[in-house]
TrEMBL record:
This is EamA domain-containing protein. The chain crosses the membrane at residues 12-33, 45-63, 117-136, 142-160, 172-191, 203-225, 245-269, 281-304, 316-335, 341-361. Coiled coil: none annotated. GO terms for cellular component: fungal-type vacuole membrane; mitochondrion. Residues 119-186 form the EamA domain. The keyword Transmembrane applies. InterPro entries: EamA_dom, EmrE-like. It comes from Huiozyma naganishii (strain ATCC MYA-139 / BCRC 22969 / CBS 8797 / KCTC 17520 / NBRC 10181 / NCYC 3082 / Yp74L-3) (Yeast). It is a multi-pass membrane protein. The keyword Transmembrane applies. It is found in: Membrane. Keywords: Membrane, Transmembrane, Transmembrane helix. It comes from the Eukaryota.
């Protein structure tokens, strides 16, 4: 598998395959979290654990770095050649070590720059995931996925501002078709679930409303960070980025920098740090649920980054609207709580058509990266 990819949209077929994987994995994760939150409602803790688990993507790089330096040290101590012959060899190997262990690579974004980029993005990444995951504690998977699909509007808006998306007629039509499909599904696609009343201070608020607001908030943040990721990756004539390394550093930065959020949330009364109650569920069940979600997150986040990097942010965002029909179908098959109507079928079809409209757009706006560098095989 290639370590870097051309930011100008090369290998878009691979990006669409990665996008399809994200759709399936996100729906699976949503249903898993929906079940987990019925007995252990800790969206911030679960999100922190899930995103931090992406640190595992750094292990291959650490192994390669350690092996490279050990080999260089062994050759230096075991060499019988004089200094004039050894110096060019060590200089050449040092350049290779720099590319692997954090120096400035000549064929793409360096390890240090990738780490800095991840440090900037980890808060947005976690924020979007927390909002989206928390929505599942108050509303259905279908409602959450439907409202999350509104990220297409924010992606186009922010993308146009950042000049990583060109506002074309086909894209506008695609968004209009997607929005129409979403409205049809929301208004007439299925029967509304029972509404639970919660209290915010002295004001009673529908739990569904809270979930919908959280899902919409996640969509806004998603539009911001997916656009900024594409923008930052093409900055200063960088044409390739190690997506696996980027996701790994996002996990590491989350693990090391964002744990205070758990303490703040605990003392602010937003989310109490505690083990699950023995009267409701066994601890191993919660641990297994979190571990399973971590696994889904590790794979889906990497696939998402590949999809955004190989295609366009708007294409990925509209493509993720495919979670709507899949989520509603699974919800109907599993619980029988949704009534599939003709309106639902029409709305789902419109969402799919909007994705096809934008997925076939091959043009790419001009960025500051004017000189591409070759992508390694």
């Amino acid at each position: 598998m290639a370590r870097g990819y051309d930011v100008r949209g090369g290998n878009s077929a691979g990006g669409l395959v990665a996008l399809a994987a994200v759709v399936v994995l996100w729906v699976a994760s949503s249903f898993l979290l929906k079940t987990l939150f019925t007995v252990y409602r800790k969206p911030l803790l679960v999100t922190y654990c899930s995103v931090s688990s992406c640190t595992l993507y750094l292990l291959p790089r650490l192994v390669r770095c350690g092996w490279s330096r050990r080999r260089r040290w062994s050759r230096w101590h075991g060499s019988v050649v004089d200094d004039t012959e050894l110096t060019p060899l060590l200089s050449k190997e040092s350049e290779g070590d720099d590319k692997i262990c954090g120096g400035d690579g000549q064929d793409g974004m360096s390890v240090r720059d990738t780490a800095r980029l991840a440090a900037v993005f980890c808060l947005l990444w976690v924020g979007a995931n927390v909002a989206t995951n928390a929505a599942l504690a108050y509303t259905t998977v279908s409602a959450q996925t439907i409202l999350s699909s509104t990220a297409s509007f924010f992606t186009l808006l922010f993308g146009a501002i950042a000049r990583v998306e060109s506002v074309t007629g086909r894209k506008l039509v695609g968004i209009a078709v997607s929005f129409t499909g979403v409205v049809i599904v929301v208004a007439w696609g299925h029967a509304s679930p029972a509404v639970q009343e919660l209290s915010l201070g002295q004001v009673p608020v529908s739990s569904t409303l809270i979930g919908n607001v959280l899902a919409l908030t996640g969509a806004v943040i998603y539009g911001v960070y997916s656009t900024l990721f594409k923008r930052a990756a093409t900055h200063r004539s960088q044409s390739t980025v190690d997506v696996q390394l980027f996701v790994g550093f996002v996990g590491l930065c989350t693990l090391l920098l964002l744990w205070p959020l758990l303490i703040v949330a605990h003392y602010a009364g937003w989310e109490t740090l505690e083990l699950p109650s023995r009267s409701t569920v066994a601890l191993p069940v919660v641990v297994l649920g979190i571990a399973a979600n971590c696994t889904l997150t590790i794979v889906s986040d990497l696939c998402w980054a590949h999809a955004v990097y190989r295609t366009q942010p708007l294409t990925v965002t509209l493509g993720l609207s495919g979670t709507i029909p899949l989520a509603m179908l699974v919800e109907y098959l599993v619980g029988g709580t949704q009534t599939v109507t003709r309106a639902y079928g029409l709305g789902a079809l419109l969402v799919v058509c909007s994705f096809l409209l934008t997925a076939t757009v091959t043009e790419t706006p001009k960025t500051e990266a004017s000189t591409p560098t070759p992508t390694p095989p």
